[in-house]
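Q: How would the structure tokens look for this protein?
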Amino acid sequence: MGLSTDTAAPPTPNGGFKLPDSPTILNLALLQLPVDPYIFGKDGDGNSIDKPKTNPNVTNAVAKIQSVFDETSSSSQNQIKPDLLVLPEVWNGPYKATEFPKFAEEIPEVGTVLTLENSQSLGPIAESCCRKYQVPIVCGSIAEREEKNGKTHIFNTSVALDHEGRIIGKHRKVHLFDIDVKPDPAKGKPGMTFRESDTLTAGDSLTSFQLPIVKNMKANKDSDSASTSPPLPTSVTTGLAICYDIRFAEFMYLYRKPKPQGRDCKLIVIPAAFNTTTGPRHWHLCLRARATDTQCYVAACSPSRPEPEALEKDKGLYPAYGHSLLVNPWGAIGDDGAAELEEKPGVVFCQVDLEEVETVRNSLPTGFQRRDDVYRLEEVGGG
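A: Here is the predicted structure in token form.
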């Protein structure tokens, strides 16, 4: 099977991965985490107050990440360990525009090694997961605070860490989630109004990075120096976007466009939190379309959905859609549709076949057939 429905349960046979491990296979684990929205307690109006010393969402995330690796290691020597782990959008606090400033934190720049001292939410992941298990992690997204020119800016920011806990990618959500979908009672469809721009500032650039393939780095180091075999690939160009960004096809295609005009990615990772209004309509459609457009693997990781009783009791809770999944470059959700969760907490074990990316692009060479003499697409942002 391509998934396990509970991160605390032992992984399925072969670590949940279907294909044998190889230098051109990337084994991914997408953690669909529950989010405790009441990390601050509440005042009389139901608003969060009092930032806690220890965020239960951070504690839970670290524990879930560790369970994936500890149980994989203890089950069998033949278990395949993930080469990359991904967390959801805004996993460390409530997804609510008015709350973002209350739990926003500073995030160091690319190249910084994170520690418990320089990052409250991401430091524990770097310390207790990346370095401990020698695994890169895309840390979903969190609210970031930046003081600049006497003004405070809050961003929805995703951070990619290498196996040493060093920041190798930092993406600020470019397209803010401002929508007003009216309910349709006749069709039983709920509505949704949300305005990230009430408190967030938009990012201004695409983000790509070199994702280290740690197992290949180790294999190259351990190989006989006299070997005539070519070295194994040690990284893959990976794009990073957040949720609403995927609705903008032009923006997303720049992740695929060959260099120097684009980023030439083979994998795009998207922490996201669609909801029960937009999710049924567009989640699969958007992700499959972007995978088809870009001829990339697209890995999307969502928070799990609160239980129905909780949503009924607190109308302010965000009804995340869930359905974390991996789409391949053909636009399919895994070989048999199994590389997807539903709405509950869990982990998707799924695989990226780098050779399949080349197969698709050689079979349908759309990346080199665009008519720059008729129309053009270029990146003009902050780099």
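Confidence is low (pLDDT under 50) at residues 1-15.

The longest helix spans residues 56-75.

Upvote if useful.
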